[in-house]
Amino acid sequence: MFRIFILSLFSIIFFQSNIIYSKIIVIGNLKFIVQMKNNLSLPGCGLFGHFERISNGQDSIDGSYPFAALLYRYQAPFGGAVIINERWLLSAAHNFYESKQPSIYQIGVGSIYLKRLIMKKVDKIIVHEKYQHHQKYDLALIRLKEPLKFGQNIRPICLPEYSFESLNDLKRGRAIGWGYRNFSGSKVSEILQEVDLDIIPLKKCRQIYSKLDQDIIHSQICTYTKNKDECSGDSGGPFFAYKNDQAILFGIIGFGVTCADEFPGVNTAVSHFLNWIHRILMENH
What we know:
6% helix, Thrombin, subunit H
């Protein structure tokens, strides 16, 4: 299986691995990008312990999101993460801006309830080498000391099928997290929260953030739904959508201004970083 994209650029890039293959061929002023499907996702990924979904509520059903994880620093919850295999999770790079020392972090998994989470020790933290505080390349990988045992309440999410996969057909997605219910909140939620958000064009997002001189780039996803939003404490958690009853990870929750204001939420587009994820996993298996 492969896809071909045509762009009017003048360069040649070649990348090949056991999992992702992409080749760019230039003919005149046209660039042809041939991409194979990735196989980073594990069999059975993105499935649910319970298949019932909530469309208008806020609290999740236990077992609905077995890939959800809560990041702790000094034993205090403060951010999100998402399981991609037995040893690795994805999160936001800015969660580790103060320190990348694994011993001060833990990961909570296995429940939507804060008090029932199973705590796991962190072995390694790898932040994208091009990360700039709260802006570009806001992505990090977390390796656990011991592999997770998958079951009804612990299971990985699926990654996008193709690198640089277009989101043109995706109009809405879902964000989950234990973050604050509002910007002035002082503690995380006791129960995992969920919210469905509309995806807005990057052009519109850039126009809005130009008021703050904030650059929005092609490897980001912007979301906006009136009176609904991701909030503090959700950063690093998943923004995903469903395909054939499987949850596909399209974004890692990044930043906003406050919560549910005029400014969209900005997420890191995971499909732009599949090659990076694969390289890090291969170098640190």
